[in-house]
What we know:
Distance between the termini: 28 Å
Order of helices and strands: EHHHEHHHHHHHHHHHHHHHHHHHHHHHH
Radius of gyration: 25 Å
Amino acid sequence: MALRVRPSRCISSFIALKLQSLSITQRLFSSIPRPQDDALSAGLPSLQPSYDADLISKILLEHHNPFHAMESSLQLNGIALSSHLVHQTLLRLRNVSKIALCFFLWAKDQTHHTHDVFSYNLIIDILAKVRQFDVAWQFIIEMDQNSVKPTSATFRVLIRRLVSAGLTRQAVRAFDDMSCFVEKDADSDDFCYLLDTLSKYGYVKLASQIFNQRKFKFDANTKMYTILIYGWCKINRVGIAERLLGEMAERGIEANVVTYNVLLDGICRRASLHPEERFERTIQNAEKLLDEMRQRGIEPDVTSYSIVIHVYSRAHKPELTLDKLRTMKAKGIWPTVAAYTSVVKCLCSCGRLEDAEQLVLDMVKDGVSPSAATYNCFFKEYRGRKDSDNALRLYRKMKEEEYSCLPDMHTYNILVGMFAKLNRMEIVQEIWDDMKASGAGPDLDSYTLLIHGLCNNRKWREACHFFVEMIEKGYLPQKITFETLYRGLIQSNMLKTWRRLKKKLEEESTTFGSEFEHYHFMPYRR
């Protein structure tokens, strides 16, 4: 079904004509702040309120099917396009790559609009997220040909997605190829970004190899060493991280509080805390490092104390956690939301929900607003207790307009999984609708949790429906989702249903509309 909007001076005049048929209200989108996607790194626009972008994305999500040529031509006549509107619409479509690309191509063909570098960066990020790297490279080449010069931010987007897909060598080649497209050579900040991305995704060995090969070209500094220390700590190789700290001193490179906090976090975060002797050893090592910081004239900051609090929280030591919180305040170091959340998590996991609720009130009194992560601690405890009533009460309280904290993607996924397991499908539908209206999701995890919950309750028709929907949106189902649905349908003597579903998915994952014919797409499947 091709979309057609009647010509008008701006899209807002069209809104008035379509409100009833689309059942859209302004509060549905514009009044609901949305959590920013972690994938949005430096160089990408941030999500901002935009009623026009809300409406366009809503129309496309509800009425556009990019798999069939007869429905793939996007015709939204009469829209006053601007770069800001394109950015905001792409951000709202970032989880549905084919529809996002269709909108991008339509906007590119409009007479009075030319895509800027930020629009290209966004579509490259959206496509690389679903591993369409050949198409992403095509757009980089297209930028260069259209005099829209790629920037280092363009390559940072691509490098991050390549590394997250495990294509580390291709990421390093993209870094080396950057100088062919970007007007300036890669600098120290670009090199730090490459090392940081590799380290964050667990490829610190490769990062160290590249660092050793190029550290004289880019002049090794504190930031580079801190990144590598973080990477080795992340894979629980604290000994190597400590040797790097020693190497810094030998080369006359001063460690700062961030360097020490990264090492402190490595000592504490992944350490085994049971039995009690291991917990005490971890605390001793942490205190030893804090003493070393003070000897070098570096005072522990709020992050340092928050890391130690997190250790107490992991070890289920509520009294020690509260005591350390009081110590921070006594020293004039006011806890951040992360520190409070660690204490709330400890109290919740120990079953002290009333104390946790009181601490949240104390947070507000201290001028610290609870985050969605703070309330997720309660939801996880309710999930463990199968306490659907209190979970639903807290969730609906968060939705109230005067409430300052709105659910994030993790909140929605916890609740979808919980209520699906409890076979409370009417509540799942409410949460699912809210999640879609907020623009936060659904994402791959949401679909996976919902489909598995439906399979557990033997709701095969609904499971198949959402399975097809996630494929149509360009998500790649995990292997376990395939196996769960297949096993359930076979055990229920529904082999024909599975065969029809499999055939449909094979067709859908390789079929694209005519506007995609010039791009080298890979099938949308694992």
